[in-house]
Amino acid sequence: MKKVKEQNLVYADKEIFKKIAEKIDSEKFDSSDNEENTESVAGIGTLGEKKLHKILKYYFEPDKKYHEIKVGGYFADVCKDNIIIEIHTGSFGSIRDKIKYYLENRKEYKITFVHPIAAIRHMCWVNKNTGEASKISNSPKFIDIYKFYEQIYYIKDFIADENFNLKLLLMEITEYKFLDGWGKSKKNNATKIDKIPISVVGEENFSGKNDYLKFIPSELKDGRGFTANDLKDESGIKGRPVYSFIKVMKETGLISENGKRGRSVRYDINNAK
């Protein structure tokens, strides 16, 4: 798999997201949504369900009657025709029990777990006292898909389940923050307000165990094996997330140890079934 910045990005669905956002802004959601009413600062949600999450529900299922459907002990973001769609923007650890419940107790459902990634970010800073918003600017940060390494551990027990599908949605997003951080700019550790989707620039789907081999950079698939340092160099990810990813790949049988290269353990890619 190439890094996001090396791909030919396709900016899609800009008009769709714009129309959904306008629809949400014009609607008055009632208690039947199982959501809290939302206050706003410069038009951005600060209480209740965040706008990114709400917009993506409409993106995957335009009909509101299929949103927030009770399935056993949980409310599914979207449930239609025995397909559950769960959209989650945070750490996978906080939704693991919900996914596990579906897979173990609701085997009649297929689960699609959607995780949006802000591959391209724009920033807007909001004065907390006046509500005045700055001009939207490009963020110097660029998020690559390999950032997922730090999350894969939480779903390692699901990736071989035929009812589990992961969709990484690569997005162009505008992020809004308060100017209430420390330092002269007041931007360091500032409070996050919300994230608004602008477009989809790509997606990666994982519907079986073999698909997770896409997280190994193509440069390391030449049959010579690779080390943890090789993976760090090619992915651009350092430290614990790399070792956590390697551990999961070993436990699921996707890679195996095969001697050493110098002082480092060498790993070979297996032909998983």
Alpha carbon gap, first and last residue: 20 Å
What is the average per-residue confidence, as pLDDT, rounded to a whole number?
86
H and E string: HEEHEEEHEEEEHHEE
In the predicted model, the low-confidence regions spanning at least 5 consecutive residues are 29-48
- Please work out how many helical segments DSSP would assign: 5
Helix fraction by DSSP (H/I, runs of at least 4): 10-25%
Residues in β-strands, percent: 25-35%
Q: How large, in whole angstroms, is the Cα Rg? A: 20 Å
Say how many strands there are.
Answer: 11
Global shape: globular
Largest sheet: 7 strands, mixed
Structural class: alpha+beta
Brief overview:
The chain is an alpha+beta fold and 273 residues long. Helices cover 19% and strands 32% of the residues.
Structure description:
Helices cover 19% and strands 32% of the residues. Strands 3, 4, 5, 6, 7, 8 and 9 form a seven-stranded mixed β-sheet that branches. It has a two-stranded antiparallel ribbon with strand order 1-2. A two-stranded antiparallel ribbon has the order 10-11. The two termini are 20 Å apart. It has helices at 14-26, 51-60, 96-105, 228-235, 240-251; strands spanning 40-41, 44-45, 67-71, 74-80, 83-87, 110-126, 137-142, 164-178, 192-206, 255-261, 264-269. It is α+β, with helices and mostly antiparallel strands and 273 residues long. The protein contains five helices and eleven strands, in the order H-E-E-H-E-E-E-H-E-E-E-E-H-H-E-E. The protein is globular and about 60 Å long. Helix 1 (14-26) packs across helix 2 (51-60). A hairpin with a 2-residue loop joins strand 4 and strand 5.
